[in-house]
Amino acid sequence: MGRFQPKVSQPACPMKILLLLVLSFIAIPAGLASGQQGPPKVPVKAARVVQRLVSEQISLVGTAEAIAASTVAAEVSGIVEHFPVKEGDAVKRGDLLARLKDTDLRLRLKAAQAARAAIQANHENSLKELDRIRKLRETKSISETHYDTAFYARLVLERRLQQSDAEIEQIEYEINRKKVLAPFSGFVAKEHTQIGEWIQPGGAIVTLLNLEEIRLTVDVPERYVVNLHPDSRVSVTVKSISAETFSGRIYAILPQGDAAARTIPVRININNPGSRIKSGMEVQVTFSLANKKNALLVPKDAVVMSGSDRLVFKVLGGQAMPVMITILGYYNSEVAVAGDVKPDEWVVTRGNERLRPGQAVEVMP
After folding, report:
1. Please, how many CA atoms are within 13 Å of residue 69, restricted to the half-sphere of its CB?
2. Is the Cα torsion angle 138, 142, 148, 150 positive or negative in sign?
């Protein structure tokens, strides 16, 4: 009889164990389990490309200058005693720019005020005397001559009191003229004097610039000037500040230009909040001419900036497709563009900042 030998299981192959472990951790993708196909659609807002007649536009370079520049002068002569401002300071209308020495005037004012006080006292005494004499006159205790003398004495003192008031007012006026005040709010562009200097009447104190509003001067070629309307609106950019667009209005088309260059100066006024635009800065002004042309227009929000490039995302078959464009002009909230866009096509206006080419999108109402 043979001897019973129990079966001993052989250890599994290490490679098989590793394969089983990997397979055990493989899960069904959540998207497939739920029946969803591909990544979710990105919600966006879109608008149609429109075509219509717009004014032809030109952009030209100009120069900014202060709407008002004044060399503020002293009315009277004197030595500069106080000079509280310096170049670059912002001042408000009525602020002190300089004060001339007024010691002699203040001494004259004290003497005039003392003289007036004496006249006032005599005048009050004359009123009491006249009242006393009037009572005596009523009782026939005094002659008419005494009454007349007291009456005219009181009248003379009244006139002297008026003369004294006028003298004091004149001295105070001369003291005030020793102060040089800012005639308007602005910035000190240049100092013309210093403490201790003698100033003649009309002597310059500071040059003051008003930057609350800016005037632009643009030399426009004559072939374009004939198509400009006075008082029409323009758009202005100052590249040294930002890409922000300022709105302005043509103030004047000057009647005389540069015969050699065949250009005519055009003046434009624009508001300057915060006085960010400085006198002398370079500006770019876009004019709308009387000529009309057909243009493709998209909302400003549809234009995406990528470095120096400009593009829009068209919605084609539920996907966002980028298209390079060239900006031809700005018309309020719309932009005239050239590129591979056609009327009635949809372009993304909201949610276009992070779109990728071919990304699935859903246009929201």
Report:
1. 11
2. negative
